[in-house]
Each structure stands twice: as C-alpha cells, then as structure tokens.
Design goal:
Layout (H helix, E strand, L loop, with lengths): L3 E10 L6 H17 L2 E2 L6 E2 L15 H5 L4 H17 L6 E6 L2 E10 L7 H15 L4
Helix pairs in contact: 1-3, 3-4
C-alpha cells in the first residue's frame, strides 16, 4: 500500500474571455438553481436539492456558493471576470504546474495522497471554479 498522486489536469485557452453569451448562460444557471432551491452538479449538470446528486452520486455542493453570488447579468459578468483571473493565477501556486502550448494552457494541480483529498490552494481553486471554467472553454 502506498501513496497515490491525486489531482486535476486541465486544458483551456491561455486567456479566458468573458462574453455576454457566457454571462447569460451563467445567470440562467443561477436562476434555475434558485428556482428549485438546489445545486447544479458540476459532474453531470443535473440540478438537485438533496445532499447527493441522484444522477451521478456526487456528494459535495459544487457551485452552490458561486451561483449564490449571481443575482443579475452584471453579477454573472463579475463572477466570470473573477474566474478568468483565478485561471491566470494558477501558475504561481506551489501545488500546480502550468505549461503553455500554442494558444492553450495545460494545468496540473495536486499532490501525493494516502487517500485524503489534496489540500493545496490550486487544487481547491480548481475544484471550486471548474464548473464556471467549463462555461469558458476549459476542460
């Protein structure tokens, strides 16, 4: 039995762009989640109100905190700008490695683990922002 490397590998544009269409989509997601009093699952996209997503079994709240900040199209635009800034800042983290290739950024964040979740800043940031980044072309 030994430690395993646990982390995320993401590929996305070197610079994330905030567009009105993306802000509208994020705003619509927030309205839908507020309407049903639930959370959108970042893994499968289902909206759920229980502790666990019935579609895929995910147990953590996903984007609940970020979507709660979105109350208008202007707020959605602010959240997208914040997401773009967080994407740019990942390269300076101790637990992340970033490489540029053509017009893309390739990011790895994680660390060795004995079964627990990594606690580094980049890993936690990716976990929190990934659903928003996916709207902006990161995968």
């Amino acid at each position: 039995m030994g430690a395993d490397m646990v982390g995320y590998i993401l590929v996305g544009p070197s610079k994330l762009r905030v567009t009105e269409a993306r802000a509208k989509k994020l705003s619509d997601m927030a309205v839908e989640c507020a309407r049903v009093g639930g959370t959108r699952c970042p893994d499968c996209g289902a909206v759920y109100t229980d502790e666990e997503c019935p579609a895929c079994g995910r147990k953590d709240p996903g984007t609940e905190g970020l979507l709660a900040m979105v109350t208008s199209l202007d707020e959605a635009t602010k959240v997208l700008h914040q997401a773009a800034n967080e994407w740019q800042n990942l390269g300076g983290c101790r637990d992340a490695a970033t490489r540029r290739w053509q017009d893309k950024s390739i990011v790895f964040a994680g660390e060795m683990s004995w079964g627990d979740e990594p606690g580094g800043w980049a890993y936690k940031t990716i976990k929190m922002w990934l659903p928003i980044w996916q709207l902006m072309g990161v995968g």
